[in-house]
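Figure-free illustration: sequence to structure, shown twice.
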Amino acid sequence: MPENALSASFRCAEGCDFRADLAEVVYTCPRCGGLLEVDHDLAALRRRSGDEWKALFDGRFRLGAWPHGSGVWGKKEWVYPQLPVEHVVSMYEGGSPLLRVPRYASDLGLEDVWVKECGVTHTGSFKDLGMTVLVSAVNGMRAAGAKVRAVACASTGDTSAALSAYCAAAGIPSVVLLPRGKISTAQLLQPIANGALVLELETDFDGCMAVVRQLSETKDIYLANSMNSLRIEGQKTASVEIAQQLGWKAPDWIVIPGGNLGNASAVGKGFLLMKALGVIERLPRLVVAQAENANPLWRVTAGAGVKASAAVEVKPIAAQKTLASAIQIGAPVSAKRALRSLEALDGVVEQASEQELADAAARADRAGLFTCPHTGVALAALEKLAARGAIRRGERVVVISTAHGLKFSDFKVAYHEGKLPGISSRLRNPGVRLPATLGAVQDAIAARFGRG
């Protein structure tokens, strides 16, 4: 089936009959104000059987001719089928490792836990999966004559890194709005190095988001945050990869940290599409994990004793400082989308305190990982659900790690030096300073492991 036989378009996610071409500069429904979603022609997609889709994707995965070797563009028919390949801007994103972590699982009384390392990609976070689609779309718009001067985002770090890198590759100007003093040095340096206009605002992420939404009211500044549903199309391919790496089977549980909640909705969308096309037989259950200091979704679901569903209203809160800075968001723009995914995947919402997320990250590192604090939130949620028996031994769990731990080395250093404010570093492992003598080294080894 040729790609040009398939198409996708924007439609109102709230049920209005509004539709728009994917090349239009539009983010919300002009009739009801609801967010849009990318709608695929399922009837056309069903002309291939589930087995045929699996064979096609397996034949491309990390092997196919450019751009189909990309983990995202290898699923182009499910992402942006009508975009000409010459407009694709790809850094060979996706294809990240799915690691089984038996030592960590055993510590929790589980036996089948996996970590999807989405941070092992071009800019070190899952944001690359969505940004390749969005920037490719803008590249196509500009080639067709659209007057898009720049692409802009509000960010707590990772979105700005992905946007600036992909825009630099395409020769498209980028503008990033960051909350001053609230992101890691590595995250700040990435957009600076890639030539973005970096604006550090005296506010938090929600304040940056309010400004960038106003900025993008004119069509010459294109909005790159996850309220733009083109991002979701790329991010949903993480779900497809997970199933593919598990032999085209869904796990029992997917656990993901949630901030602006676009990725939580993308996970659900990916699994629902696979189920609809006969690629997988059943759906996993979804866990969205939030930091206790930035937990608007948890407050109106688990915190209120309410099952997550599309009928729940998420009220904005003032997010407090958290070590998981990328999800320090009190007014998530994709809350409704995430709730739909939670409802469809029989999901739950859990939260993690600062102590819990720091210890969970350290515990996973002791089992060979190197986790960012946001993944620590997801791991802490898994630990709590396992402890109370919601997740049972024998069930297969995949935790999505959203960014590379090296982007948060200050967090790691402070934990092991016992310098994180308010945190008891129970698993700290500081370096030991010694004189340069054999005896001193032998004594240190004996102190840790005993005499031989």
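We now fold a second protein in the same way, so the two outputs can be compared directly.
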Amino acid sequence: MAFQQGLSGLGVSSRALDVISSNVANASTVGFKTSSTVFSDTFAAAMGGGVSSLQVGMGGNTLAVRQSFTQGATTATNNPLDMAIAGNGFFQIERNNGSVAFSRNGQFDLDKDGYIVTSLGERLMGYQSVNGDGTVSFIGSTTPRPILVPPNGVGAKATGDGGTGDPVVIRGNLDSAATAPAATNPFDSTDPSSYNFTTSAAVYDSLGNQHSLSLFFRKLDPTTNANQWEVYTKFDNADLAAPDTPDPATPSTIVFDPSTGTFDSTSAALANHPISVLVDTLTLNTGAVNLQFEVDLSQFTQRRSGSATFEISQDGSPPGEIASVSVSDSGIVQGRYTNGETRDLGQVILATFRNPNGLASVGDNLWVETVDSGQAALAGPGDGLNGTIGSGRVEESNVDMSAELVNMIIQQRNYQANAQSIKTQDQLLQTLINLR
């Protein structure tokens, strides 16, 4: 029987050396998870199920090869689409045959169609919606699909979106110590002495042509119109004429609270605010449709500080092509375009399992779910038990090379000892044969 026991020992030691060798071979494989061998002993059972008072084992057996899903170290790369998961979770991958697999290898690139893919061309999945015009977003979509970065760029968007969009908002300050121009000095955009401060904002028509909206602020006489300013508007350095608005002869009036210096939206002296701007297609002379938007000056203050513009926001933009792609910690895939616009295109999702050791490895750093692993629970990075994503980084193998080399020595000694037990049994058998 010692022959069988020794042979089983050789077998389990050989299997353990196979696992160790695989770990060592993948010490530099991104996202690889080290494996260990689980052994068990073997006994012969009686036919009737009784238990002998003298039980001698039949040797050893390999019970399982178990993977360790501990966190590996992360390394920075020069690729913004590389991703490292910090914590629980697996990337969901759509394979080339249409099946779904899971991976910790976050090395991704864009293919010719704009999909985020692995080195094998298999697509990373996430939350994303595809709009009727071919553009994409992730708002409202919870059905996993391959993440697409549209290669065709974005079209132009008119400021104000024909009057239904956001206003042009300007935040700034008007110097409370400014001296009002004399009543005998009427406003003239070419005469700086006829106004106190001027600023301008870039706006865009429906074809993406840029235009200049200029605002001129003239302080009114504080003895008769305290804390009041007139605002004159010019478009592309020219007055607008009917049917365009505003009428250059009717300026807007803004008012400030004397105790705080903030905009007074309740004042009866407030006139023509927000400023409604309508520029006819003939005035634009670019082929674009009418340009219509409002100008909101309620973020202005009047305090003892130099007149200045701090911030201008408007929702128009020229056309742009995709310039770069990045991924946030929460998995949001953002596209940056040549027109300066940034759009959220989708969200990478992560999958967690009740029993990760129940996953079946299919090679190429991929696992598939099984009955033992349970179904994948999908959510965004940072949600629930999911870890977060580090962009421009990859997770290294969690193989401990020092431990593997020590284990290799141990299994080598085990193999030698089992071989020695076979050799000893052979010598005993030879002695018995030679008794004659």
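Summary for the second example: The helical segments are 2-25, 281-284, 401-433.
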